[in-house]
Amino acid sequence: MGHECIDASKEFKFGEDVKSGVTEIVLVRHGETTWNAAGRIQGQIESDLNEVGLKQAVAIAERLGKEERPVAVYSSDLKRAKDTALMIAEACFCPEVTEVPDLKERHVGSLQGLYWKEGAEKEPEAYSAFFSSQNDLEIPGGGESFDQLCERSMNALEQIAKKHKGERVIVVTHGGVLRAIYLMITKASSAGKLLNASVNVVHFHEEKWIIDSWSDVSHLSSVGFLQRGFDGDSKP
């Protein structure tokens, strides 16, 4: 797979160059959940959108509904992402949401269900593995390594990109997946905070990934968002 990152502003603008085979993917992190607000580790456990998260989903749906219409909406198969995606699809006049299991959040082993503040004490090995710089280290308790997360996330995204050359699509996923995608494309040392219901736009063209914009939450000014976001690069 090609993961080269180049300056998008000097290359093309999506609206002008769709015929050149550029895929535009709008990556969205799901709305805030009850567990997000409580500082609890979700991983692949289900957690519902809370009141703020539902408002965020409405706000992002309204925003994307006013932009260029996507040809498809894809989502992780976890409920918090699917519920966000369904609201977006309705606003964008897309008849369905296509579930992609490989876009689900990282399985974080025995950390799942714990609060971040208790992870180091209750599951020290898993906690250490999660924050380790050793990317091939699997998290104890059935968790994935960061390399495994990157491979499945990028493979899923590339399949979508190749299917929709010259088109715009929306993909609703999770903080850990967005972090993996950002780090794979940019080769940066940190992805920073990944905020709920944020808009993150990437382009795929001639086997190259390009980040057009990242972590845009301008549409959430009236409903708010968790400032701490998902920050897998630093310990809480």
Automatic annotation (TrEMBL):
One of its GO terms (molecular function) is phosphatase activity. GO terms for cellular component: cytosol. It comes from the Eukaryota. InterPro entries: His_Pase_superF_clade-1, His_PPase_superfam, PG/BPGM_mutase_AS, PGM_Phosphatase. SMART domains: PGAM. Pfam families: His_Phos_1. Substrate binds at R29, H30, G31, E32, T33, T34, W35, N36, R80. PROSITE patterns: PG_MUTASE. The active site is at H30 (tele-phosphohistidine intermediate), E105 (proton donor/acceptor). Belongs to the phosphoglycerate mutase family. This is Phosphoglycerate mutase family protein. It comes from Brassica oleracea var. oleracea.
